[in-house]
Amino acid sequence: MTDVSNKPPSVSQGSFGSQMMRRIQSHWRQIITVIPFFWLLFFFLAPFFIVAKISLAELAIASPPFTKLVEWTDSGIVTIRLVFDNFVYIWEDSLYFDTYVNSLKISVTSTILCLLFGYPIAYAIVRSGPVAKPLLLFAIILPFWTSFLLRVYSWMGLLADQGTINNLLIALGIIDEPIRMLYTEFAVYIGIVYTYMPFMILPLYATMEKLDNSLNEAAADLGSRPTNTFFRITLPLTMPGIIAGSLLVFIPATGEYVIPDLLGGGNVQMIGRVLFNEFSRNSDWPVAAAVAIVLLFILVLPIMVFQYFQGKASEER
Amino acid sequence: MTVSSPSGAAPWLDQNEQQPLVQIKGVTKKYGEVTAVDNVDLDIYQGELFCLLGGSGCGKSTLLRMLAGFEDLNSGSITIDGVDMANVPAYERPTNMMFQSYALFPHMTVEKNVAFGLEQDEVPKFDIADRVHDILKLVELEDFKKRKPKQLSGGQRQRVALARALVKRPKLLLLDEPLAALDKKLRKQTQFELANIQEKVGVTFIVVTHDQEEAMTLSSRMAVMDAGRFQQIGTPTEIYEFPESRFVADFIGSANIFEGRVTEDGADHVRVQTEFCEVYIDHGHSVKVGSKIWVALRPEKIRITKSEEAVTGPNQVSAVIDDIGYLGETSIYKVALPNGDIFDVTRPNQTRPTHAMQQITWEDKVSISWDSSSAMLLNK
Amino acid sequence: MYGNRSRFLTIMLTLGLAFFYIPMILLVIYSFNHSKLVPVWGGWSLRWYSELFQSPEVWQAVSLSLQIAVVNATFATALGTLAGLAMVRFGRFRGRTLFGGMLVAPLVMPEVITGLSLLVFFISLNQLIGWPAERGFATITIAHITFSMAYVAVTIQARLTGMGQTLEEAAADLGAKPFKVLTAITIPQLTPALISGWLLAFTLSLDDLVIASFVTGPGANTLPILIFSRIRLGLRPDINALATIMILVIAICVAIAAIVMFRQQRADMLDRQMAEREEG
């Protein structure tokens, strides 16, 4: 008690307050940087290391259902038990291997489809008049603000055996029996192209918009026909947009869970769905973690390419 | 270069001998309500360096783009070398264009940029290499052929653009503000280079510019454009010394313009009475006695002499120095006339101003005068 | 542009827009279908709307989702803005590359990976420090902040680079200290980006199913989780009704935003005309 009373509290408090203010004023840059930085380190990066750790553990009947990697033995020696069984299991089990291949096949094909349809749409918007342009751009962005889940759901009603498309085709007399569309790979393609198309169109639009029209005119002036101009001038110069858009579709589509689950049903195996089910139903966390790590390794290169382009784009701006 | 006949030097004067390379007849271009080019006619002959001069929005670039095939005509026709261009797309026209922004393909090297046009014509590969090499040598860029446009200076880019347009040996080269992006010093130097290159290759040039000095230096003939119409077409000297309207007199160079009334109209002279003095002109002019007319005087054609007494008489008037601007090579004097008008007068600074006493300075009483051949009469 | 390509482009654009909007329009139409079987037309009816409103489950899910979305949007905007400022205005600092990488990665990271890693993280954290004792509101919100702040940061970065540094330099030239420049110039200038960043984070949170499914606990059902559990088994007319309401809400918000923006533009234009008239 005497210790406390020895200090003049009012003075120390006052100087402490103003000192704080001065601290904040002189170190605010560091504070600003540190808060989001640590948030991401803590909630984004650290969790990946835990997943990596679990992928190297064994299944245990416990909660959580995996063995500890690092154990303190009685003698105080740390033992580290690394088990690569999970990865071997994924490699040897054709179910997982085929699922990875199938996921990549579906995401690559959908990316190409998005590009084939998105490119002319983006080009058409760039070529539109000053009034139509913002409206069209808006029309492309608008679906993005509505629920992803409901956009996928809307196709269930269209593609079902008793759905709108089949009903229409039967009413028109084109078919007698409904065509099976829902719960097929076809439905998954439709779903991915439908929901990810804006991610392709917007970066394409951004690069095309920057393109100087006099380059097209110069090519024409030098004797180049429109098709040739497209392949020699427009296409190479819009490559950054093509790469950005393709990665924005390809990377999330590879790990897609909702679309294969709702539109593919049990018939289309994609790795995101296997991962989710492994986790929630089988509760085999080490294997699920290993599945996630492998998926991450598959996607790490495209993600780094995307980051590289993202960084280059923001430097050029 | 030998001038064999007057018509060879000035084909536009000879009506019969030569067919014009470019014939523009009654061409009109409208954007909605705005008329960019308004019913213009123009003939341009083989080997000319023709300048279209005018302010922004006067229609000069639109006319150039119509020649290149980037804009459709609302009415009229364009004929190049006897062929009507109405349904010929840009990529099939015998013209090439040098763009104001140069429009160099950023993903191709200098060499590839220049070769692009030849590849379109399916010129054999070895031929392309030769022609690219020759043209790059002409514009002194052989050492830069592997570079991308980003790695070049403004002047080098300009020369690549020129080489790319010239390498196809077009019948007509269109240049849209070819020097606008260069800084002043480089621009002056390049003006002469451009004229030299044109002389060497013998291709007909049409240059669009807003810079009158550029037009005067470059062109064999020029057209002054305003509001979609030609105000006057002629050689630089004709346009400068014999402008047909106040617009042209004022747009090209500067001029002191004032009103007067014609008092005498002879075969070899004209007299005009103005508010402050009588103007005598020693050559004939088609005017009516008693009609209102404008007189224009170039500032460099006026002399200033110190004089305390008032003078009146033909082509001279008393004045007071109102202001002086020192520009280095010349000085500009603002002189106030008895009626309150202010005239610009320029004098070359032929000597260094060491003796302050001899100098004309502020508030000095002076008289200004000019030769009887100097004043220009303008009807509109 | 050249004739035939122009027609081709127009056709592609029209098909694209039809592809985007026809499924949504049909979704709305079928929400007024009386029949229990979604694609079989049984006459116009508001039956599914009344059923929807009588379901306490739906109301709970809506309430939970909105709470998470608001808290998430606010925190994500704050953190994303700080991150954007650090990236664009503070030049080089140690760990910038790692920081930049962590800011961009959530934009493309498959949701299953993010969700799984956050779940195991929360469980490990619980073992270590006893928190979070149970998963739900807090864990979902933290997970949402983590990925939405990346989107906000991108928006803020674009705005910061777009607006340049002239105003900030002018303020500094007039004697404002760096902290004052930040609060008096930079932040007010950022307002449009802050608003759009907040709305983006809000929408992302309302929209998320996968990550929330991983990190939620028993009983804490967000709206997407509820919808998903119902439509997994097939078409549900009450979900059509719910979808229609959500589309309507978004349409109203968008319309308000458009009107505000239009008014603002017109006011700016009138101001400018007025100023010019006074000058003349």
TrEMBL record, chain A:
Gene name in the database record: potH_2
UniProt GO BP: transmembrane transport
Gene Ontology CC terms, in alphabetical order: plasma membrane
Chief localisation class: membrane
PROSITE patterns in the record: ABC_TM1 (PS50928)
Keyword Transport: yes
ABC transmembrane type-1 domain location: 100-306
Subcellular location: Cell membrane
Membrane-crossing residue ranges in chain numbering: 31-50, 106-126, 135-153, 186-208, 229-253, 285-309
Keywords assigned: Cell membrane, Membrane, Transmembrane, Transmembrane helix, Transport
SUPFAM superfamilies: MetI-like
Organism: Falsiruegeria mediterranea M17
Family label: Belongs to the binding-protein-dependent transport system permease family. CysTW subfamily.
A Pfam family annotated for this UniProt entry: BPD_transp_1
Keyword Cell membrane: yes
Bilayer topology annotation: Multi-pass membrane protein
InterPro entries: MetI-like, MetI-like_sf
Protein name: Putrescine transport system permease protein PotH
UniProtKB/TrEMBL annotation, chain B:
GO cellular component: ATP-binding cassette (ABC) transporter complex
Reaction it catalyzes: ATP + H2O + polyamine-[polyamine-binding protein]Side 1 = ADP + phosphate + polyamineSide 2 + [polyamine-binding protein]Side 1
A GO BP entry: putrescine transport
Domain of life according to the entry: Bacteria
The protein's Enzyme Commission number: 7.6.2.11
InterPro entries: AAA+_ATPase, ABC_SmlMolc_Importer, ABC_transporter-like_ATP-bd, ABC_transporter-like_CS, Mo/tungstate-bd_C_term_dom, P-loop_NTPase, PotA-like, Transp-assoc_OB_typ2
Keywords: ATP-binding, Cell inner membrane, Cell membrane, Hydrolase, Membrane, Nucleotide-binding, Translocase, Transport
Coiled-coil residue windows: none
Domain named ABC transporter: residues: 22-252
One of the record's GO molecular function terms: ABC-type polyamine transporter activity
Subunit structure: The complex is composed of two ATP-binding proteins (PotA), two transmembrane proteins (PotB and PotC) and a solute-binding protein (PotD).
Purpose: Part of the ABC transporter complex PotABCD involved in spermidine/putrescine import. Responsible for energy coupling to the transport system.
Family: Belongs to the ABC transporter superfamily. Spermidine/putrescine importer (TC 3.A.1.11.1) family.
NCBIfam families named in the record: potA (TIGR01187)
Name this polypeptide is given: Spermidine/putrescine import ATP-binding protein PotA
Organism: Falsiruegeria mediterranea M17
Gene: potA_7
TrEMBL record, chain C:
Record carries keyword RNA-binding: no
Keywords for this protein: Cell membrane, Membrane, Transmembrane, Transmembrane helix, Transport
UniProt subcellular location: Cell membrane
Chain ranges of the ABC transmembrane type-1 domain: 62-260
Stored SUPFAM superfamilies: MetI-like (SSF161098)
Claim: Secreted is one of the keywords in the record: no
Superkingdom assignment: Bacteria
GO annotation, cellular component aspect: plasma membrane
PROSITE patterns in the cross-refs: ABC_TM1 (PS50928)
Membrane topology: Multi-pass membrane protein
GO BP terms, alphabetized: transmembrane transport
Transmembrane segments: 12-32, 64-86, 98-125, 137-160, 181-203, 209-229, 241-262
InterPro entries the record matches: Bact_Polyamine_Transport, MetI-like, MetI-like_sf
Family membership: Belongs to the binding-protein-dependent transport system permease family. CysTW subfamily.
PANTHER family tied to this protein: PUTRESCINE TRANSPORT SYSTEM PERMEASE PROTEIN POTI
Name of the featured protein: Inner membrane ABC transporter permease protein YdcV
Organism: Falsiruegeria mediterranea M17
Origin organism lineage: Bacteria, Pseudomonadati, Pseudomonadota, Alphaproteobacteria, Rhodobacterales
